Amino acid sequence: MFSGSIVALLTPMDSSGEVDYTSLKKLVDFHVDAGTDAIVAVGTTGESATVTVEEHIKIVLKTLEFADGRIPVIAGTGANATHEAITFSKMFAGSGIAGCLSVVPYYNKPSQEGLYQHYKAISESSELPQILYNVPGRTVADMLPETVARLSEFDNIVGLKDATGDMSRVKLHRELCGEDFVLLSGDDMTGLDFIAEGGHGVVSVVNNIAAADMAQMMKLALAGQMDQARVINERLMPLHKELFVEANPIPVKWAAHQMKLIDNGTLRLPLTELDNTFQPTVMQALTQAGMV
Questions:
Q1: Which of 3, 165, 225, 249 is the right S-S partner for 45, CB 3.0 to 4.6 Å?
Q2: Are 278 and 245 a contacting pair, CB within 8 Å?
Q3: What is the spatial distance between Cα 230 and Cα 193, in angstroms, rounded to a whole number?
């Protein structure tokens, strides 16, 4: 369940900014039909920073309900306060989620020892599988491979989502953490290369709109058919690039609305709709990738 094509699912909202659960169900069904291997609910792409705690919990639980056992659901449970991350993990105990994805604490810039103690406390407070999430481009703090290795010694810390784009870390993490430790890319642009270096899968933004292609590409790559996987990846490359012309999830939410996957492209402030300057660029990328 922690391998292959995993979608960092966006959170659809109506024109007033309220969570649109009808569109959320459509998205879950879309990914089941497309062969997506798992869903991450309320991660960065799901606007975890701007939904309330009550909404956060409800979105995860409704995603579980809509999935109805057809696809594993991983809950985003990260926070920059350790006690809050622990609370999220405890809230989902016994819910049926496959595991938790916990981002490196943002803004407060913890040391490596602080990161270790943060995740140690989470691990000791929950029996759920925990996946570490390192994305220094957003959090500033960078969890180094040596710290990941220390944390991999906890039985329920089972993997890492690495969004650094640094391919040299894949082999290093494998050497330090062992063969059973799950390595997932969090960077669409380098995701296929990550698999080629020994990774297990990709937690993807692009998967929100190119779900069937991403699923097929990951299936081929993990089967060792890299040449065929690269053909798909090359076609999707405009999306890997242009869906990040503004902060995620601004472009992908606009694209999903254009493709009628969701009924509205509303985001929560301080994020705003994709700037008019970039809309033709994203539409061209959708066209080149065969999405429209």
A1: 249
A2: yes
A3: 9
Structure tokens at 20: 């649109």
Tens of pLDDT along 183-226? 999 999 999 999 999 999 999 999 999 999 999 999 999 999 99
**Domains observed in the chain:** 4-236 (3.20.20.70)
* 277 has binding-site annotation: no
**H or E stretch including 76?**
strand 73-76
Q: Is 53 annotated in some ligand binding site?
A: no
The dihedral through the CA atoms of 196, 200, 201, 203 has a sign that is negative
Catalytic-residue membership of 116? no
Helices vs. strands in the chain: H and E counts, helices first:
12, 8
Where do we find the tokens 């609370």?
A: 87
Residue 77 C-beta-side C-alpha neighbours within 13 Å: 31
- Please pick, among 21, 62, 116, 133, the residue that the annotation labels catalytic: 133
Q: Name residue, tokens 């291997």.
A: 37
Residue 203's beta-bridge partner residues? 6
pTM of the full structure: 0.96
Q: What is the pLDDT of residue 188?
A: 97
Which residue among the candidates 25, 109, 116, 161 is catalytic per the annotation? 161
